[in-house]
Amino acid sequence: MNPNAQKFIAQMSSKLKSKLFLFAKLPSAFFSGVRIKELNQEQATVTVPYKWFSQNPFGSTYFACMAMAAEMSTGLLGMMQIYERRPSVSMLVVKLEANYFKKAVGITHFICEAGTEFKNTVEECLQTGVGKTITAKSRGTNEQGELVAEFFVTWSFKAKSIS
Predict the structure, then answer these.
(1) 21-56, pLDDT tens digit by residue?
(2) What is the DSSP string of 102-133?
């Protein structure tokens, strides 16, 4: 594991540091209750609760709050690979697809298990100098382990020129 990825995992695994990151960089996710539950080389798990701030008028978690958690579960794996890289690498969501299967009425756990794919994509981007995309799947399950939603988030990576 590269030392920068290890450093990123350590920072995001700290409850205080991850909450400060959310508050400073993603305040809507912070106030919606989105939280990083687990992060390692292979996967990221992010939770979002059903509460007043994340509710919709139909008695479930608002789709945008679920999208924030799903995006974060994929984005953390990408951010881990580009953290403090030289040359630096930019990343951006270029597409989002979602399927909903069940009402989200409790804590929904979004898990992405594409760590190796993100690593390979970023490495290829750096080696070739050509922008690359990856579509990562995030599965949202309820507290009973039932599938609530799945998201497919397409990320674009591009190495910045050294100047």
Answers:
(1) 999 999 999 999 999 999 999 999 999 999 999 999
(2) S---S-EEEEE--HHHHHHHHHHHHHH---EE
Amino acid identity, position 77? L
pLDDT over 60 at 95, yes or no: yes
Of 2, 39, 41, 3, which is closest to residue 21 (Cα–Cα)?
39
CA 151, CA 96: separation in Å to the nearest integer?
7
All residues at 6 or more sequence positions from 129 whose CB lies less than 8 Å from its CB, including other chains: 159
Torsion sign (Cα): 120, 123, 127, 128: positive
User: What is the spatial distance between Cα 56 and Cα 50, in angstroms, rounded to a whole number?
Assistant: 9
User: pTM of the predicted model, to two decimals?
Assistant: 0.94
Q: Which helix (H) or strand (E) holds 153?
A: strand 147-159
Helix residue spans in the chain (DSSP H): 3-13, 15-25, 27-32, 63-82, 115-128
User: How many C-beta atoms surround the C-beta of residue 80 within 10 A?
Assistant: 25
